[in-house]
Write a structure and sequence with these properties.
single chain; alpha+beta; Glutaredoxin
């Protein structure tokens, strides 16, 4: 499995791109209605990526904890399901149930939302403030499927603490890494230089 880093194209303070996307069952959600009282974590993910599977249970547990802090979570699957049928909306419903994801898990069929966020990999994390502006982009923690490091969410939890305490954004961050988003043929983004 090739490991691809985040692009860091969006900068702290940038307004996050708006979107309305369906979940695996076809119910639409907009970013505006998903914004939390203190902030919102937008994660790009999918069902089959080993990097996402590595963190999936902990992301579900952390999302429950974050809700109590006023921070909502949403995961967006932008993969090409024609070539990666294991990431289909029907299988998204099963995946969310398996890992205890009680937050919206949305399907970006056109891949326009991934392009708008300049997302590169699964998982790719974007923590927004209460107004929907980027507060943090970076890794969950140092753990990866191929190392033995504890999955503790240290980097993301530090950013969330700064966010809910009205602190300054953390500008020096390590990129998230994971499998590349599975782009439809001819839809590869230009921001990969």
């Amino acid at each position: 499995m090739a490991e691809v880093p985040s692009t860091f194209t969006l900068q702290a303070g940038d307004k996050a791109p708006d979107f309305t996307l369906p979940d695996g069952a076809g119910k639409d959600f907009s970013l505006a209605e998903l914004l939390g009282r203190k902030g919102t974590l937008v994660m790009f993910g999918c069902n089959h990526c080993p990097f996402v599977i590595h963190l999936a249970k902990q992301v579900g547990e952390m999302a429950t904890e974050m809700k109590g802090w006023g921070v909502n979570v949403v995961v967006i699957n932008s993969n090409d399901v024609e070539n990666y049928p294991q990431d289909s909306p029907e299988k998204m419903v099963e995946f969310a149930k398996q890992y205890g994801w009680s937050f919206p898990y949305l399907y970006d069929e056109s891949q326009e939302v991934a392009h708008a966020f300049h997302a590169a990999c699964t998982p790719d994390f974007f923590l927004l403030d209460k107004d929907g502006c980027l507060f943090y982009a970076g890794q969950y923690d140092d753990s990866r499927p191929k190392n033995d490091l504890l999955i503790d969410g240290r980097d993301l939890k530090l950013a969330i603490r700064q966010l809910i305490e009205d602190g300054a954004p953390i500008l020096e961050t390590k990129p998230a890494t994971g499998c590349n988003i599975k782009w439809k043929p001819g839809n590869e983004p230009s921001y990969f230089g």
